[in-house]
Write a structure and sequence with these properties.
- The protein has 218 residues and is α/β, with parallel strands linked by helices.
- The chain has a domain of 137 residues: 3-Layer(aba) Sandwich (Rossmann fold).
- The chain is built from 6 helices and 10 strands.
- The chain has a 6-stranded mixed sheet with strand order 2-7-1-8-9-10, with helices on one face.
- The longest helix has 17 residues.
- It is globular.
Length: 218
């Protein structure tokens, strides 16, 4: 069993960055790192800190790939606009979605940097895992994460959240990410704690269909 990766509080992004740099490229010349977790679990903040520790590595937010009409049905667009060109060592050009204007904007460039972070719910979906060098899961129970997200976004986004929650439930029930995470990231009062993920466990296929919540702590 892999020993827990437990650096001192506050040092996780830097220590994890060193570990990522030693990984083999997974998507052409790129080490593509997925940062997944429930909406409201802290993915964006952690990805930003990790990117800074990686000398400002590019971050592709899946919020730019999804849309109102396709909250999770965006695999083909991501593979075509991002994964395929990066896998050939070329600069990707994707169309970011404007959630206020409800339309896709002008193309944005994503170079084949040594490390690219892919952040958002669904970053660890089965179609993307073959292209990932590492999959991180922000390990916060869904109800707590969703409550944080609703509080963050306020009453203005209440209708959106009412639609998002059942959509996320359906997606993660059909295509869970947490069972395949290399590492679990838990936010503490100060800093983060990183633990080995379930990816190397002996869990059966049946067990993987039971949801993506952390096991109960006795």
């Amino acid at each position: 069993m892999t020993a827990p990766f437990r650096p001192a509080p506050g040092s996780v992004p830097g220590d994890l960055a060193s570990r990522i740099r030693r990984l083999r490229p997974s998507c052409g010349p790129v080490r593509l790192v997925g940062v997944d977790g429930h909406a409201g679990s802290g993915k964006t903040t952690f990805a930003r800190e990790l990117a800074a520790a990686l000398d400002d590595a590019p971050v592709l937010r899946l919020d730019d790939i999804a849309s109102h009409d396709a909250l999770f049905d965006w695999t083909g667009r991501l593979l075509e606009q991002v994964i395929e060109p990066l896998s050939r060592g070329r600069t990707a050009r994707y169309l970011p979605y404007d959630w206020r204007a409800r339309r896709f904007g002008p193309a944005r460039a994503l170079p084949p940097a040594p490390v690219v972070l892919l952040e958002g719910v669904g970053a660890g979906r089965r179609a993307l895992r073959p292209h990932l060098a590492l999959l991180l899961w922000m390990d916060l129970p869904r109800e707590e994460a969703w409550a944080r997200g609703r509080s963050r976004d306020g009453e203005e986004q209440r209708e959106f959240w009412d639609g998002w929650v059942p959509a996320e439930r359906r997606h993660l029930a059909a295509d869970p990410s947490r069972p395949f995470a290399d590492l679990l990231v838990r936010q503490k009062k100060t800093g983060y704690e990183v633990l080995p993920g379930p990816v190397g466990s002996s869990a059966s296929d049946h067990a993987l269909t039971q949801g993506d919540e952390p096991p109960a702590v006795c």
